[in-house]
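WARN no homologs supplied; continuing
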Amino acid sequence: MQALLDPLQFAILPVFAFTLIGFILGRRGAFSRAAAEGTNAYVVGIAVPCILFMFLGSSDLSSVDWPVLIVYEMSLLILYGFGYLFCRFVFRLAPIEALLVGMTGAFPNHVFFVMPIAVSLYGPDAGEPIATMIAVDTLIMFAGTVMVLEAMTGGAGPLRTLGSIARNRLIIAIFGGLAFNLSGFEFHDGVAHFLGLAAASAAPASLFALGVILSGSDLSRIGGPAWTATVIKVGVHPLIAMVLLGTAVPVSAAWEGVAQMVFAAPCGAMAFVLGLRYGVPVENVAKAIILSTIFSVFAIALIA
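OK structure emitted
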């Protein structure tokens, strides 16, 4: 626990600090929901595409621990589907909201939560497995969710929907970054610095917007969908890692501790960002992010 305390404070305190500031200013009327949505427009239009392009453009995919990565990605997709079905048919959420709650229960906060903790505990080399997992999550889960959201909200025929997907900046950043990676080129120092600054702004801005949105929500009742996403992410997923990794699934020394921490990561903010972008109710998503961040401390302490 002592080894986790110092890195945990750098992962947890910013989450609550930026969210709390947004919450207080939202309650005082200094920032409205419209202002939060404007902030989110910057996040989804500029900052997140820079994150996606940067990670996909620079990840080293040559040293992947494929058994771990395959089990990790398959477990995410299964939990995503379970979360969607549970929220859709038990809590009777609309399909598009159930989709984002399902994503919330599967997509981890590996960039801003796990990365600093893992690097502090295991050294700089721990960043490479995490970057690889981020790249694959982005290609499969994030890109897939954006495509489904475009199809669900487009209200047009198949050809127009495909055109809308092809013009989506998030999709362009994902496949542009992958193409850049495969080209063998490296980022110019100035470009890398710009991408790093833009990427670093995503978490504070999205967490601040999350706090503003929560300021208008009823916090006396968490609700079943938020608890469902939280239990899936910091209860079921870490349990899968504890049962499978190193037993049924062989794992290399370089990936073992890091992969287990990613399995135990809290819910990421990407579903919240997408929810605001596509006009989907995000209160359940926002509450799950806060809840899972609290409980993830104990999950990571146990599994690391």
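The mean pLDDT is 88.
OK
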